């Protein structure tokens, strides 16, 4: 009998389920509780009832109906809102999860299902030795991207066991703090900067975890297993609407895995979500560089990003003869490369210093000089009902504007037209073999975009004007320190494209052990015969044959970054006041409204001109205000509006990073910019 003092009106029964693996032991317990009992006290009471001697420190209460964790153990049941009808499950916070990496390898590891995804990804990256975890996130494949795969392969639902890299015994997986040596700026190099393999003197660093030298090689080196059959089974987007499906499944970084319906042993994709690769260093980032390379490689093979035939052959040459061959052999070659300042170029420059054993000297330019370009260029204006009108004018580029005149002599007077390039879209239109060096400018005007084509005479002229246009679109002038590096980057890319027929290499392609179908997208497999492809890839290979393994990967990434569509994530949206759907492209520095039928850009808005953005959670509408009283509002049709909101906030957060801040991240600022007030 229970006395009335023990069983008063303020007590009530609460059914608790314990998620344990002990056979023959009860899993459901009915406890008498009061509303002022705190969560920690409820845990203690339950563990006393279970009577199993084990470590319960990783256990917490999961509230099934509310889909939330009760992690604040000092809160009372009343404060949490827990009543008699609540279904609480006492379960582990760390559970097994399968992650498919960008290189298509699957790893199985223990991840926190109670931490916010942002923190969980940080822990995963520490486990895999990938710095700058803020650039990555977890993606759940949408139903649309899985349909084709299911039809093709109904029986093999999961990868074979031997293909899964099991990392379940690592310190982070066990809920312990990761080795801080990973993120120390003063640490000794952990990778050979030429081959990307773990440095033997530092392999002892791996001894406290499960990322052994062998496992590290799987993550840091490329192991191409692609075949036309494998490509055929994978989802290949054909339209902008198809590409929008690829970005629909990003998980919310401000909520936990469990809150988003992820269960133990689920498979998610670990991908680079934000295309701003910060502080790349071959000495520390072999895994990171390889995974970025692999994500780029698959994006090109699956035609998630468009490229020309010439560019496809360069990508194939870098894959086929460099990354594949050098990954499988221990041979490395000496190489030299140019010094440049964006993140991939900084890594290449760092690599050159390592290989040459010296330091680069920086030339201090006269900052009082205002640079300008002046030259004869061809202006191409597309006409709707006629052929293109091509005419030569005298062009002058100053600050962020281009002016053109009838000839050089009339340059002292008023220009025919002055084009302000700030906020414009700059698209390369190049075919090196055909000596075509064009620059397509899409300049924002009141009712859309004004198209202007410039045609240059040669590579040097193209590189100088293209670099100036790229900087001007970002609001920077040629006085900016990044101008010369940008010119060198463009020239370097053109040089890779500029190959000549090599009769010796091309005459006997059958002697080369290579399946060209593994290195180009299906569109080009249909266009050329196997021998033709082999010969053309061999021609392209001449300009990349002296690169080391890491440099080849960095050059591949750089070429990927040079593509017009690089870094764009697409979503189908409906703008306020519009009667039709459009595509919104989200990039690291701008938003682009794109016509869904034609694929043409309509308007561009730059983040640098953005004053504020917010979400009306009731109608799921994103509203953004820009300078000069420009405001837009749209609802997202292909994904939750929170994903776009997080993308915008995430890119703004990443723009605040500085190398002076070591490796620490302001997690609070990230959630402030991306979380929203739902």
Automatic annotation (TrEMBL):
Pfam families noted in UniProt: FERM_M, Kindlin_2_N
Domain PH: 378-474
Gene3D superfamilies linked to this entry: Phosphatidylinositol 3-kinase Catalytic Subunit, Chain A, domain 1, Pleckstrin-homology domain (PH domain)/Phosphotyrosine-binding domain (PTB)
Localization (cell): Cell junction; Cell projection
CDD domains, per the entry: FERM_B-lobe (cd14473), FERM_C_fermitin (cd13205), PH_fermitin (cd01237)
Keyword terms of this UniProt record: Cell adhesion, Cell junction, Cell projection
Keyword Ion transport attached: no
GO CC annotations on file: cell projection; focal adhesion
One Gene Ontology molecular-function label: integrin binding
Signal peptide: none
GO process terms (BP): cell-matrix adhesion; integrin-mediated signaling pathway
Family assignment from sequence similarity: Belongs to the kindlin family.
Protein name per Swiss-Prot or TrEMBL: FERM1 protein
Organism: Leptocoma aspasia
Gene expressing this chain: Fermt1
């Amino acid at each position: 009998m229970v006395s009335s003092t023990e069983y008063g009106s303020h007590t009530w029964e609460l059914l608790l389920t314990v998620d344990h693996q002990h056979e023959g032991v009860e899993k459901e317990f009915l406890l008498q509780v009061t509303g002022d009992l705190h969560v920690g006290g409820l845990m203690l009471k339950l563990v006393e009832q279970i009577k199993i001697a084990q470590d319960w420190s990783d256990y917490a209460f999961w509230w099934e109906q509310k889909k939330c964790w009760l992690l604040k153990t000092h809160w009372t049941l009343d404060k949490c809102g827990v009543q008699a009808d609540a279904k609480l499950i006492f379960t582990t916070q760390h559970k097994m999860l399968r992650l498919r990496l960008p290189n298509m390898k699957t790893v199985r590891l223990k991840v926190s299902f109670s931490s916010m995804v942002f923190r969980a990804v940080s822990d995963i990256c520490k486990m895999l030795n990938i710095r700058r975890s803020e650039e990555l996130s977890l993606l759940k494949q949408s139903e649309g991207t899985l349909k084709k795969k299911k039809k093709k392969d109904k029986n093999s639902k999961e990868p074979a066991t031997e293909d899964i890299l099991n990392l379940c015994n690592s310190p982070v997986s066990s809920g312990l703090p990761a080795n801080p040596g990973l993120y120390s700026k003063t640490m000794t190099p952990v990778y050979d900067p030429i081959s990307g393999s773990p440095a033997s003197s530092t392999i002892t660093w791996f001894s406290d975890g499960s990322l052994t030298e062998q496992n590290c090689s799987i993550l840091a080196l490329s192991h191409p297993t692609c075949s036309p059959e494998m490509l055929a089974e994978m989802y290949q987007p054909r339209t902008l609407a198809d590409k929008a499906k690829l970005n629909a499944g990003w998980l919310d970084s401000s909520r936990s895995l469990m809150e988003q319906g992820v269960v133990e042993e689920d498979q998610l994709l670990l991908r680079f979500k934000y295309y701003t690769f910060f502080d790349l260093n071959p000495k520390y980032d072999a895994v990171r560089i390889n995974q970025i390379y692999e994500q780029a490689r698959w994006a090109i093979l699956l035609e998630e990003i468009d490229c020309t035939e010439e560019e496809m052959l360069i990508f194939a040459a870098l894959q086929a003869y460099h990354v594949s061959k050098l990954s499988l052999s221990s041979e490395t070659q000496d190489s030299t490369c140019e010094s440049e300042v964006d993140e991939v170029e900084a890594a290449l420059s760092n690599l050159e210093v390592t290989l040459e054993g010296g330091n680069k000297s920086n030339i201090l330019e006269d900052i009082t000089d205002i640079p300008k370009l002046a030259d004869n260029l061809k202006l191409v204006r597309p006409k709707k009902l006629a052929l293109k009108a091509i005419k030569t004018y005298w062009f002058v580029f100053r600050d962020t504007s281009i002016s053109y005149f009838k000839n050089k002599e009339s340059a002292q007077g008023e220009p025919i037209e002055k084009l302000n390039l700030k906020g414009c879209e700059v698209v390369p239109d190049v075919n090196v073999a055909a000596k075509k060096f064009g620059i397509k400018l899409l300049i924002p005007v009141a009712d859309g975009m004004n198209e202007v084509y410039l045609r240059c005479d040669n590579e040097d002229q193209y590189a100088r004007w293209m670099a100036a246009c790229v900087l001007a679109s970002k609001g920077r002038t040629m006085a900016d320190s990044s101008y010369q590096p940008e010119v060198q980057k463009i020239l370097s890319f053109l040089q890779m494209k500029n190959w000549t027929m090599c009769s010796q290499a091309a005459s006997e392609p059958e002697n080369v052990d290579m399946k060209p179908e593994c290195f180009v997208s299906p569109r080009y497999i249909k266009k050329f015969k196997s021998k033709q492809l082999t010969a053309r890839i061999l021609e392209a290979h001449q300009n990349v044959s002296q690169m080391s393994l890491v440099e080849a990967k960095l050059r591949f990434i750089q070429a990927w970054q040079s593509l017009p569509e690089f870094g764009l994530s697409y979503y189908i949206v409906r703008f306020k006041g519009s009667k039709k759907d459009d595509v919104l492209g989200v990039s690291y520095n701008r938003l682009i409204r794109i016509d869904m039928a034609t694929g043409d850009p309509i308007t561009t808005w730059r983040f640098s001109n953005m004053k504020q953005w917010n979400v009306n959670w009731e109608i799921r509408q994103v509203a953004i205000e820009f300078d000069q009283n420009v405001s837009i509002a749209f609802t997202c049709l292909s994904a939750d509006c929170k994903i776009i909101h997080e993308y915008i906030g995430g890119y703004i957060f990443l723009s605040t990073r500085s190398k002076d801040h070591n490796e620490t991240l302001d997690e609070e600022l990230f959630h402030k910019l991306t979380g929203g007030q739902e």
